[in-house]
Design a protein that fits this description.
There is one protein chain. The protein is an all-beta fold and 104 residues long. The chain has a domain at 2-73: Beta Barrel (OB fold (Dihydrolipoamide Acetyltransferase, E2P)), CATH 2.40.50.140. It has no helices and eight strands. It has strands at residues 2-13, 18-23, 26-33, 37-38, 52-62, 65-73, 98-99, 102-103. The strands form two sheets. The protein has a five-stranded mixed barrel. A hairpin with a 4-residue loop joins strand 1 (2-13) and strand 2 (18-23).
């Protein structure tokens, strides 16, 4: 069963890609890996020690911790994009050669 809480990042190792989130709901700390951090676009997937983040967790043994995060917000405000993104744009033009005065 999963639960949602808010906690403070107490440890983070960018080199190893994991850290610990402290919360009253997860005594002893909740293990969090980089793959469960919710980010946007090209945002670096990492947590900052001291940041307060929302997270979803489950009771599961992970590297000596009794809880494991299944999703973690980055703690940064995200402004939703309205309309099409300018991050990617593509066009395609098809033209045919004339054969004996007739376009094919």
């Amino acid at each position: 069963m999963q639960s949602t809480s808010e906690g403070t990042v107490s440890q983070w190792s960018s080199h190893e890609g994991w850290g610990v989130i402290e919360s009253v709901d997860t005594p002893g700390g909740c293990w969090a890996g980089f793959s469960v951090i919710l980010g946007t676009g090209n945002e670096l997937v990492a947590l900052t020690v001291g940041a307060v983040v929302p997270f979803t967790w489950e009771a599961a043994e992970q590297d000596g911790f009794g809880f494991r995060a299944t999703s973690v917000g980055s703690g940064r405000a995200v402004t939703p994009t309205v309309g099409p993104s300018a991050a990617y744009f593509s066009t395609l033009t098809i033209s045919y050669d004339e054969v004996d005065g007739v376009s094919s």
